[in-house]
Amino acid sequence: MIVLVLNCGSSSVKYQLLDMIDENQNNVMAVGLIERIGLADGMLTHKPAGKEKYKVTQPINDHVVGINLILKALVDEEHGVIKNIKEIQAVGHRVAHGGELFKSSVLVDEKVKKGIADLIELAPLHNPANLKGIEAMEALLPGIPQVAVFDTSFHQSMPACSYLYPIPYEYYQKYGIRRYGFHGTSHKYVAQKACNLLGMNFNNSKIITCHLGNGASITAINNGKSVDTSMGFTPVDGLMMGTRSGSVDAGVLLYLAEKENMDLQGINDLVNKKSGVKGISGLTSDMRDLEIAAQEGNERAQLAIDMYYYRILKFIGGFAATLGGVDLIIFTGGVGENDCALREFIGTHLAFMGVHFDSDANRGVRGQDKVLSKEISRVKVMVCTTNEELVIATDTMNLVKN
């Protein structure tokens, strides 16, 4: 089954075309990105398998125009990978927020579209764009089966003591204010993948997954189910990130609002765009650049790195306590898969838990699956590459077939 996977942002669309033979066999036929939707200098970057990268710059007024450009690239005589657009048998969409409505991936119908629209309040930057992608495909390929895969659905197994905030219960009842968690497709995928590689039973293991990138979250998985996660009602909660603050005393925000005369938009920009390692270092949100600056003696760059590492350790330790022990710790995401220094620091500081970290195995490992703990280690540690597009394509294939 040929599946098109779309990840629609407010002004961008990431995509992959995959030939899904079965759950274990697939071929990536093309990957690409639409950028700057709504601007005169919109851009398509298209990379077909086995061919040169192809770029187009033109006005892209909306998501329909952008996705139509993707479809044209896929069937282009020179740069395409299929002969006819009807070869695409299904479309899978990443949808940021499923709230409490969607506990798993679903075939899209009018009821599902309404549900995604009803949740726009909880994800005003993401759900509208995700819905636009679904509607664009309906216009361009009417009748094609579409599947929505939700970032939040894996975390719907969390118990109330984990997902509720200690504020008046009525706000949960009235507005659905609770911890939802994100990166669910990634956390579930790498946990299952690592268990398969290690010969462990995913449904009988205690696992902590660390999805570390510009956005970052950690999840506690007990016997195949998410029982806690660091991101909350929004993706700003939890870990310190590239530009997001992570968990911060709400009183600080009230104080700053008064002292700096900030409105709600100002506070939103502060915690989402001006904080994290960029806010502390005053330099960048990129961990690679921070490490170079720290090596050159920049003290604030080093402070940002120290704070970033510290909070990861704190969440791992806390989740280990709530799980009652850990069998496996996994690093994934752009930073987790490529930052050897981070993994070295975290791994060696978990010796008290029975982790025997293998520094030699860790050295130089970037973007590959590898065990990073020694044979005698009571807790296994692994770096595992994530593939959210494959999760979406697999769920799409299974739902459409069944």
From TrEMBL:
Signal peptide span: none
Pathway info: Metabolic intermediate biosynthesis; acetyl-CoA biosynthesis; acetyl-CoA from acetate: step 1/2
Cofactor note: Mg(2+). Can also accept Mn(2+).
Gene Ontology terms: cellular component: cytoplasm
Keyword list, A-Z: ATP-binding, Cytoplasm, Kinase, Magnesium, Metal-binding, Nucleotide-binding, Transferase
Swiss-Prot/TrEMBL GO biological process terms: acetate metabolic process; acetyl-CoA biosynthetic process
Binding site for ATP: 14, 211-215, 286-288, 334-338
Binding residues for Mg(2+): 7, 388
EC id: 2.7.2.1
Subcellular location: Cytoplasm
Catalytic activity: acetate + ATP = acetyl phosphate + ADP
Site feature: Transition state stabilizer: 183, 244
Residues given in the record as substrate binding sites: 94
Annotated catalytic residues: 151
Gene Ontology MF terms: acetate kinase activity; ATP binding; magnesium ion binding
Cofactor: Mg(2+); Mn(2+)
Protein family according to the UniProt entry: Belongs to the acetokinase family.
Function: Catalyzes the formation of acetyl phosphate from acetate and ATP. Can also catalyze the reverse reaction.
Subunit structure: Homodimer.
Protein name per UniProt: Acetate kinase
Organism: Acetobacteroides hydrogenigenes
Organism placement in taxonomy: Bacteria, Pseudomonadati, Bacteroidota, Bacteroidia, Bacteroidales
